[in-house]
Specification:
heterodimer; A: 2 helices; B: mainly alpha; 0% strand; globular
Chain lengths: 49, 192
């Protein structure tokens, strides 16, 4: 799952460097959201609820 | 030096530091044979996110929205680092990985994330810095951004080899996709 996060960040990075457009911040926020979900999965914090 | 120029140079220097952090973690992984845990990898993704915000500032001009995204990424990275600190905070716990200058890498990354939050706060105080971009990006800076993209690709490939696309093991000891037993089981599945 973290490999997918890196892939998404790479796609955003390619757009930032080679073809900037107005949807980049939105895509970046999506990457951040996926990272947060990944943190939720990997932190084992759910077991303490 | 105008505030805008000061911000531009600060962002370039920040990108240089982020690239150095990613290269050092790669050296620790490949030469030191220290397999990164899932939380370590998530801290790397946070550094990558901060680097992308710096790239956006360099490429599209200094904007408050980019600093806002950087702040969100720093807070996420700090949360991940803090979680790992709490995992190893018990007395007698040896911690994860080798220490660097007396502190483990996750302690250092928590400090760096907090430092970035402070720097973003200071940067946002400079009102005159937020202007549309006028000058072209220099080739050296473009090269630095391409190096940063290559580092993201390298991290993605190594993470894929270590964990595949599923949830990473909590304490990895080998590259899952390169292990002999894994290859044997795939071969057995194919032959049956």
């Amino acid at each position: 799952m973290i490999a997918i996060v890196f892939l998404l960040y790479l796609l955003v990075g390619i757009q930032v460097v080679f073809k900037p457009n107005r949807f980049v911040p939105l895509q970046f926020l999506f990457c951040l959201f996926v990272s947060m979900l990944s943190f939720n999965l990997h932190s084992n914090l759910l077991g303490y609820l | 030096m105008t505030q805008n120029k000061f911000h531009y140079l600060g962002n370039v220097f920040g990108l240089l530091i982020i690239c150095a952090i990613l290269v050092l973690s790669f050296i620790d992984q490949l030469i030191g044979h220290d397999f990164p845990c899932p939380l370590c990898l998530l801290q790397r993704t946070a550094f990558v996110g901060i680097g992308l915000c710096l790239c956006m500032n360099i490429k599209n001009g200094i904007k408050t929205s980019n600093y806002g995204l950087m702040l969100l990424t720093s807070v996420l990275g700090f949360s991940v680092a803090l979680r790992q600190v709490f995992l190893h905070v018990a007395p007698g716990d040896p911690g994860f990985g080798p220490p660097l200058l007396g502190l483990h890498l996750y302690n250092w990354s928590a400090i760096v994330f907090m430092f970035i939050v402070g720097l973003v706060g200071i940067g946002l105080c400079m009102n005159n810095a937020f202007q549309p971009k006028v000058e072209k990006t220099r080739k050296l800076v473009t090269g630095l951004m391409i190096l940063f993209l290559l580092l993201i690709l390298g991290n993605g490939v190594s993470t894929f080899l270590e964990c595949g696309v599923m949830i990473c093991p909590a304490n990895p000891v080998q590259y899952d996709l390169l292990s002999f037993s894994e290859l044997q089981s795939i071969g057995a599945e194919l032959s049956s």
